[in-house]
Amino acid sequence: MIDQEHIAALAGIVGDKAIVPGNSGMAAYQSGARYDEGRAALVIRPQTTEDVSAALGYCVRNGIAVIPQSGNTGLVSGSTPDASGGQVVLSLDRMTQRFDIDLDNRTLHAGAGFRLSDVNGKLEKHGLFFPIDLGADPRLGGMLATNTGGSRFLKYGDVRRNTLGIKVVLADEQGTILDLTSQLRKNNTGIDWKQAFIGTSGAFGVITECVLNLEYLPKQVATAYLVPSSGAHVMPLLRAMEDRLGAYLSAFEGISGNAIAATLDHVPSLRNPFQGGGVPDYVILAEISRTWEPRQGEQSLDSVLEAVLAEIWETDEAPLADAFVGPAHEMWALRHALSEGVKHAGKLIAFDLSFRRGDIMAFCDRMKSEMPKNFPEVTIRDFGHIGDGGVHFNLTVPKDSASATEPDFERRLRDWVFAVAVDDFDGSFSAEHAIGRKNQIYYDLYTHQKIKDMAQGLKAMTSPGDLGSVRFG
C-alpha cells in the first residue's frame, strides 16, 4: 500500500470525485476479462491530459508504480494491477472531453476514454465508422495501446493503419505531454513517433487523445457460411474469392466446429444454421460489402456472392463442400458470441497466434493430430481471422479436472504450443492482444537481445518511471 499522504496528494491533483473509494469500488478495476486479478493501492480517474500529466509526474517523483487502464477488456493481464497492493491504477474512463469530427478530412479527434460502441454510435448519423470490428467493447486508449485488429482487418487493417495522431503523457518527473495529434495523412518529415506508443501496452507513455481515420459505413452487405472440402482447401477458397471479389471482400473468418458447438450450447437464443442440426468440422464466415446504396439495375450483393460461389464450386480444385448465404446480423451474432461460448466450455487456456496465411491450417491440422497424444484432456476450439493470418487458438479442459487448476500443466501446454507456432512455423505468439504479464516470459524468450536493448533505451528516454505491466527491455 502507498502512504496516506500520497493518496491525499493525488486526490488534490485529480479531485476527490476522481478517486475510486474503497475495495468494493475498486473491484472492477482490479479484475480482468480472463481470470486475472490483482490488488490496487488506489484507482484514479483523471478527466484531462493535464491531470494525467500532474498525477503521473507526481507518481514518478515519489517512486509509485502506475498501471494505465482503458476499458480493461485485454486478455493478457496488461491492464490490471499485480497482487502487491502497491500500484496505482490510472483509468482513462473519464477521458471523454473531446469528440471532434472532420468530415472533409474523414477523421475523428477524440479522448482516449470513449468506448468503441460510443464512437460508432456518434458517427453513424454521418454515415461513418471507425473500422475496427471487435467482439468486446474496448476504449480507444486501450485499442491503440494494444494495436487491435478485429474481424475486418482483411479490408481495413489494424488500429496502427487507422491512426493519424496521438497525444501522450510520459512517465517522467515532469509528466511531459507530447502532442503528436497530426491531422495529416502524409507527413514524411522524420521518425513517426506515434508508432512507439501504439501496440506497446502503455509502457512508453499514456495515450490520452487520438486522431483516427474514419471509413464510410457499408450500405450493402452479404454474408455466407462456407464449408471447405478440407483444411487444405481453405487457402484455395480464399484466393478464389479474392480473385473474383477484390475489395468487396471484407471478412473471411474461420471457425472450428468445436467452437460453434460450445457457443450454441451456451447461447440458446442463437439458431443453429446448419441442416439437420449438425455442425461441420470447420466453417468460414465470409462477408462482402459496398458503401453505396443499391442502384437501379445493379446486381445485388447476395446475387454477386451466390454467383461467385457457384463459379468456385465448379473449379477443378473444388474447395467448397457446402455454402449457406444468409442474413448478416444472424451470421455475425454467432461469430461475436464465440469468445463467451468457448469460455464457458471449461477452463479456457487461450492463445492469440498469427502465421503466414498459408500456414494457418497446417498448424491447426498438426495440433489436431498431436494434441490428443500430448494433452489428451484438451479440446481445441479455435477460431480467427484467416484472411489476415490470425487465429485465436482456444483450448479448454474440463473444469473438474485437476489440470484446470494446475499451474505447471498450463505452463507446459503454453510452452509446447508456442514452440510449435514460433519455432516450427515462424509465427507470432501475440497477433493482436499485445504483451502483458501472461505472455511476458515468451516475449523474453523469443525477442532478440538487441531488440530488447533498444526497447530499454527507448523506455529510459520516454518514461523512466515505473509505468505499465510490461518489460520490453
Through-space gap between termini: 27 Å
Q: Rounded to an integer, what's the Rg over CA atoms?
A: 23 Å
CATH topology descriptor of the largest domain: Alpha-Beta Plaits
Tell me the number of strands: 18
Q: Tell me the count of domains.
A: 4
Q: How would you characterize this protein structure?
A:
With 473 residues, this protein is of the alpha+beta class. The strands form five sheets. It has a five-stranded antiparallel sheet. Helix 8 crosses helix 10. It starts with a helix and ends in an 11-residue tail after the last helix. The mean pLDDT is 96.
List keywords for this structure.
4 domains; alpha+beta; Uridine Diphospho-n-acetylenolpyruvylglucosamine Reductase, domain 3; Alpha-Beta Plaits; five-stranded antiparallel sheet; 473 residues; 14 helices; Uridine Diphospho-n-acetylenolpyruvylglucosamine Reductase, domain 2
Brief write-up:
This protein has 473 residues and is an alpha+beta fold. The protein has helices at residues 4-14, 22-30, 49-61, 116-123, 140-146, 153-156, 234-245, 257-266, 301-313, 328-343, 360-374, 407-424, 440-446, 449-462; strands spanning 40-44, 65-69, 87-91, 99-102, 107-111, 128-129, 163-169, 177-180, 206-213, 215-216, 220-228, 249-256, 282-290, 320-326, 347-354, 379-380, 383-384, 390-397. The chain folds into four domains: 4-91, Uridine Diphospho-n-acetylenolpyruvylglucosamine Reductase, domain 2; 99-216, Uridine Diphospho-n-acetylenolpyruvylglucosamine Reductase, domain 3; 220-339, Alpha-Beta Plaits (2-Layer Sandwich); 346-424, Alpha-Beta Plaits, CATH 3.30.70.2740.
